[in-house]
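Deliverable D5.2: sample structural annotation.
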Amino acid sequence: MIHPSGRKDKPLSDNKAQARSPMSEHVARDILLVRAIESTDTARQLLSEDDRSYATESAMKLAQWDASDGRSALTPTLLLQKRAELLLKKIAERHPSFATFAAHRQGGRLVGIALPTLALVVGFAIERIADPHRVDLLSAPLLLILGWNVAVYLMLLTSLFMPALPVRRLTAGLWTRLSNFKTAVPRKLPPLLALAMSKFAVEWLDLSAPLSAARVKRIVHLSSACFAIGAVAALYAHGVNARYQAGWESTWLDGGQLHAILLLLFTPASYVFQLPGFSIADVQALQLPQTAAPANGALWVHLYGATLFLVVVLPRLLLALSARWSEKKLATHFPVDLRQPYFRQISGHIGFVEPTLLRVFPYSFNVDELRDRGLATVANMLLGAQARVMLRPSTAYGEELKNEPLHDAIKAVDIAHTVALFNLSATPEKENHGAFIDQFTRGRTPDFSVMVDESGYRERLGAQAGADARMRERIALWRQFCELHQVQLSIVNLAQPESRAEDIRRGLAATRSAP
C-alpha cells in the first residue's frame, strides 16, 4: 500500500530537468562545506536553528529573484548555493580565521602557469649542457627527451587495457595542497568547527579526485610540451650567432648502424616537412675526428627540431587539450548527489521533488500499524518530508519473492530506494535471509539496502539482565552477515524511529556513494 504525504509534487519531468542543472566546483565546495558543518553541529552551537531558517528563507528569495530576472533557472542547486553563501558568511563573521579556509583559492591557476613556464626555461637551458658549437647526432639530452616521451605514450596506451593504479587519492591530495585550499585546520577555532572542517576535507579529497587528476594531467602534458619547445628554441636561437658543426663519436656503433638508427628516428620528420635525406656516407663523414668541418649542421638542427615537434610537442599538446576538456567538464558539472536526505530536506522548500518512494519488502515480518507509521517516519528521514512508502506483502520464512518487479520501472511511481526489511529477533541465515537478499543483488536492483528493525527484539528482551549486550551481539551478527553479502545495513527502530536517525541517514549516504 502507498501512504501519501498529502503534498502535491511537481511533475516528474520537471524534477528530472532540474536534477540535471549543472553545479560548478566552487558551488559544490561551498555546499558540501556547509553540509559538513550542519551535520556535525547537531546541537546547534555553531549555527542556531534561527540562523538556518533565516538562511533558507533568504536563499529562497534570492534564488527566486535570480530566476525571475532570467539570470538562471530556479533549481535546487541555486537554492543550495545561495544558502551556503549566507551561512559561510555568517560563520566567517563569528570566526575570522575560518574565512581563510572557506575562501576560493587561485593556487591551481598559478601552478598551471608556473610549472609550464619553468619547464620552458629548463628546456631552453638543457641543450646548453653539451658542446654549444656542435650538433651531436647522438645528443643525450634530445634522445632522452624523445625516449622518455615514447615510454610515456606506451604507458598511457597500456593503461587503457589495465586497471588503474591506486594513485588517485595521492594525486588528489597533492593537488589539493597545491591549489584549492589548506587541508590543515586553522588554529583558534572551536573544536566542533575544526571537526566539521576535517570531515569536509576528507570528503572533498575523494569527490574531487577525478577533477584533480585531470588538472594534473593537463599541467604535466603542457609542461612536457614546453620543455621540448624550450630545447628546440635553444637549438635555433644559438644558431643565430654561432655556426653549428655536426658530428658524432661512439665506441659501440659504426656508421652503418648509426645510419639505420637515425633513419628510423628522422624519417617521419623528413617526410612531413620535406627535409633532405642523408646517406651512410654522409653519416660516416661526420664521425669524429674529422679532417674538415662539415657545413651541413643546419640540416641536423632541422631534423631534431621537426622530430621533437612530431613526437613530443604535438602529441603532448593534444593530450593537454584532452585533459583540459575533461577538467572543464568536471569543474562545471561537479558530481554531487542531490538525492541525499540533507539536500532533499532543503530542496523541498521550492517544491522540488525527485523520486520519493521508499519501496519496502518485509521478510518473515508482519508490519503492524505502529511500525507502519514508523516506516513513514523513516522514509521522511531518508528522502525528505514529501516521501511516501510502498509496502509490499511480506514474504514468508523460507519462501522466495515471486512476481515482483524488482528491477523494472513502475509506470505510476518513481522509486527512490528499495529496502529488504528484516526483524532483529531473527538470526540471519544464508539459506533463507541470504537467499532473499541475493534476489535483489543478482538483478542489480538500484539503490538497494537492508534494514533490520530492533523494536520487537528490544521489547522481547525488556529489562532482562544482559539485554544490552545481547542486542549488541545480534546487531554485530547482522552487520557481519550484510558485509558478507556486500549490502549496506541500517539498524532501525520502527517503534521509535528518531532513536536511530543517525544510523538511518548514514546507511543511505553509504548506499548512494557505493559504485
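Annotation notes: The first helix runs from residue 12 to 19. The beta strands are 2-3, 134-136, 245-247, 357-362, 388-391, 415-423, 448-453, 489-492.
The annotation will be released with the project's public dataset once the embargo ends.
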